[in-house]
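Data availability (excerpt). All sequences and predicted token strings are deposited with the supplementary files. A representative entry, Large ribosomal subunit protein bL20m, is shown inline so that the format can be inspected without opening the archive.
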Amino acid sequence: MVFLSVVNFTRSRGPDEFWRKRRIFRLAAHYIGRSRNCYSIAVRNVHRALAYATKARKLKKQDMIDLWNTRITAACEQHNITYYTLKEGLDRANIMLDRKSLSDLASWEPRTFECLAAVAKQKVEYDGFNDGTDKNRPTGTNLKLKDVMLEAWLKENKKF
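Structure token line:
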């Protein structure tokens, strides 16, 4: 396009406006009615949707943390140990597992989680750590490390 005067050049919006509008219309393609076809309405709805999406990413992370905590707490109650005692015992035993890993173990590998709970409880008792929470709250069975581990496995490890 050739502009013979500066006035015509400044009035021409050119291809940039087309691509800017196209980006908004592509984000609004699944809307219904004028919010899909009218640019001034579509741009408002797209901006609001993008703001909600930004908030939702943070809320999704918080929801997952709450779910993991709930699963771990439920598994801890089955084994008569509090979540705080489990975490403290695992930290003292240098077993560094995060919430997600503990939650997966609690839901998909309950025997492994039972062993971890027994190790944590044994380490806490060995160190003389006092939880300070009500001991009557957990309703599960009492754990002992010898009950969880197989005697044959313990004997094999003593040979080395």
